[in-house]
Design a protein that fits this description.
Strand content: 15-25%
Oligomer: single chain
Radius of gyration: 31 Å
Number of strands: 22
Helix content: 40-55%
Number of helices: 25
Number of domains: 4
CATH class of the largest domain: Alpha Beta
Largest sheet: 7 strands, mixed
CATH topology of the largest domain: Rossmann fold
Strand order of the largest sheet: 6-7-4-3-2-5-8
């Protein structure tokens, strides 16, 4: 017997519901329709518009099996309305009982109520795989209760394999009858913001009347939808802010220092920090001086100088007697960070260690011992979070390209110390509304200024038919003493296929540019092999570097002034922007060539237009958010936050701000109401825990 907080359904149904994130009756209540079908009226066949779903009533005139162009069941029906009253029903997959049922209806003159989209077919007007049912025998004598037209639009819910709409509707109707939808918002506040009561909004969305403005309903602009979206945003804000408050109650090492190491580092640098870098460094330093763990996101566009800011934070932790861990998503990037940080910090007497999965045997054991004893800064990949790695005294965890790591991975690094401070860095700018929603438990710092001397990167679009021109441009760049990248396409997210694409491209360019030195780097190379190729490129011993997306983040070669991205239409906006940022690192004018292949999809065309027209990472991120939506932009696995199902961060920005304000008030004044609202939306689920 299920408990009050369990769904009363067979185990197989409950298993399918869990795939939709539905575990409690409250989840059913808040499982709202994707769209609606109008079964409240019957349209004469002659008046039914083509291309729109409609409901008709008709008798079966004949039933036939057709073998060409493929086996199918075809029924001809009519509502006896005169000219144009005939319609064909086609079924490409069907059961024998379906054929016999339609034949029996024909013989008995029994009426069918049919719902589907009418289109022009080879035989005439038709519906393909319509939904239909037989009307009661007494339909002609007077409408029975069972055949009465519904008083509201029929909801169509998000579903999964093996879970029929009828089953969902029955379960939701039962949950609605027993649901506690007690209003938690003050009536005056609701009226001020034109929001209906929660019971009214929920009932309306599950069963809207036929006279409703369907465009407002489908666009989710109706007041009922706005109420649901506000409640969803409020639940998210409450959960994240409550986590933030809980974090502030935790103890953390207070890294209060004189700042001597940081001053010595800045004095030794061959460049001066920008105003934005100094501002952000001061924000981080103030956080590290607190008795609760820092949880800060440092974001900035490609090449803005996040690494030096992280190095200054590491200096503060080390001067206070604690270790710093610096984790990067790839060995190429981690190695580059290691080389840079070592060059900056070892002259200051800081012991910098390197740890990666490619280290084997005795070398690995020696590094583990170093981490557990004397290392002050440990740079590495996922190897840092392995169970065998123990830190002596971890006080600061830095995660670069944080969106590349899952929540669990970031959490594991934090567990290597006792509530260490955490600094997460990203070169994928987060639009303001997205940050407000998804990072409400984080403090966010933004480096919004590029270092002086950086040349802007010009973007050029070339069809693949002009490939010869691009190869000539590569030759000209090298003749001028510069170097070039040639990035291979992402092929179906397959490492094997991507590798083959890289090998094929390398072979073709080696033949076409036989007088140049063409190198190759990809993810399948061993760590030392990748390092060797990159070192040769940095040293100018390779003219053209053919690469997969392993170079997307972090690789700096000032002499590289040309980036060619092959099959650019296959890449996401963030990837294109990151790759483009690999050039323009010096004072010379740099160019990024986007090679694309026709025909372009509408989305691919939109992406290429955005990357061509914009260089500002935050604007690109905003446009990307509009194209993809927040769920795909952030990634559910990466965010650790329940994705918004109903609210849209672009169109509902006003609701985000209202939710923020109310969350602050409730957390301060009404914890009981906070608990009720969170239980309604999330129950006891643990997915709100985030790193």
């Amino acid at each position: 017997m299920p408990t009050a907080d369990e769904i009363d359904a067979p185990p197989a149904i409950r298993s399918r519901l869990r795939k939709l994130g539905i575990e409690r009756p409250d989840d059913l209540v808040l499982h709202l329709p994707l769209r609606y079908e109008d079964e409240t009226r019957v349209t004469p066949i002659a008046d039914a518009p083509v291309g729109w779903p409609v409901q008709v009533e008709a008798v079966v005139l004949d039933v036939a099996l057709r073998q060409a162009p493929r086996r199918q069941l075809v029924a001809r029906v009519s509502d006896a309305g005169g000219e144009g009253s005939t319609l064909f029903l086609r079924f490409l997959s069907f059961y024998g009982s379906q054929k016999s049922g339609l034949q029996a209806a024909r013989d008995a003159g029994r009426r069918l109520r049919i719902f589907g989209e009418i289109r022009d077919g080879f035989l005439g007007r038709e519906m393909v795989h319509p939904r239909y049912r037989f009307l009661s025998d007494d339909e002609n004598g007077g409408e029975s209760d069972v055949d009465a037209l519904p008083p509201s639009l029929t909801p169509v819910y998000p579903s999964t394999a093996g879970l029929a709409q009828g089953t969902l509707r029955r379960l939701i109707a039962r949950a609605l009858r027993a649901a506690d939808l007690a209003e938690l918002l003050a009536d005056g506040w609701r009226e001020q913001h034109a929001l209906p009561s929660l019971p009214a909004a929920v009932a309306f969305l599950h069963s809207p009347p036929p006279a409703v403005d369907e465009s407002a309903l489908q666009a989710r602009a109706h007041p009922a939808w706005r109420r649901i979206k506000f409640d969803e945003l409020l639940a998210q804000q409450l959960a994240l802010r409550r986590l933030s408050l809980a974090r502030r109650r935790q103890g953390a090492p207070v890294l209060a220092v004189a700042g001597e190491l940081a001053r010595r580092l800045q004095a030794a640098l061959p460049f001066a920090l920008t105003g934005a870098q100094r501002r952000v460094a001061a924000e981080i330093a103030a956080d590290l001086d607190q008795a609760h763990p820092m949880q800060r996101l440092l974001q900035g566009d490609v090449g803005c100088g996040k690494t030096i800011v992280a190095a200054l934070a590491a200096c503060q932790a080390i001067e206070a007697g604690y270790q710093t861990a610096f984790m990067a998503p790839t060995e190429i990037l981690a190695e580059q960070h290691y080389s840079k940080l070592r060059a900056w910090l070892e002259p200051l007497g800081i012991e910098v260690s390197w740890l990666a999965g490619s280290l084997g045997g005795k070398a690995r054991q020696a590094k583990r011992q170093q981490v557990a004893t004397s290392a002050q800064l440990v740079v590495g990949t996922h190897a840092l979070i392995q169970e065998s790695i123990d830190f002596a005294r971890l006080g600061l965890a830095i995660v670069d390209e944080q969106h590349r790591f899952g929540v669990v991975q970031r959490l594991e690094l934090r567990r290597k110390g006792v509530n260490p401070h955490q600094l997460m860095m990203s070169a994928t700018p987060i639009p303001r509304t997205l940050a407000m929603s998804y990072y409400a438990d984080l403090d966010v710092s933004v480096i919004d200024e590029l270092p002086p001397g950086r040349s802007p990167v010009k973007t050029r679009l070339f069809s693949d038919t002009r490939r010869a021109e691009v190869i000539a441009a590569v030759r000209a760049v090298v003749a001028g003493g510069r170097q070039a990248y040639w990035v291979c396409p992402l092929v179906e997210e397959s490492a094997k296929l991507e590798l083959q694409a890289a090998l094929d491209t390398w072979a073709a360019l080696t033949a076409e540019l036989s007088d140049l030195r063409v190198g190759l780097v990809h993810g399948r190379l061993k760590g030392d092999e990748k390092a060797s190729v990159m070192a040769a490129f940095v040293a100018g011993e390779i003219d053209v570097l053919v690469a997969t997306t392993v170079i997307e983040v972090g690789v700096d070669v000032a002499n590289a002034s040309l980036m060619v991205i092959e099959h650019a239409e296959r890449f996401g906006l963030s990837q294109l922007h990151q790759l483009r940022g690999r050039v323009g690192r010096g004072a010379e004018e740099s160019v990024c060539v986007l090679l694309y292949q026709q025909p372009l999809s509408r989305t691919a065309r939109a992406r290429l237009k955005i990357i061509f027209e914009h260089t500002d990472g935050f604007e690109i991120a905003r446009q990307d958010l509009r194209l993809r939506g927040p769920g795909e932009f952030i990634g559910s696995r990466q965010s650790g936050v329940p994705l918004l199902r109903y609210a849209d961060l672009e169109s509902d920005a006003d609701l985000v701000e209202l939710a923020q304000q109310m969350a602050v008030q409730w957390l301060r004044n009404d914890p009981e109401r906070v608990g009720r609202h969170l239980r309604r939306w999330f129950g006891q689920r643990e997915e709100l825990l985030r790193a």
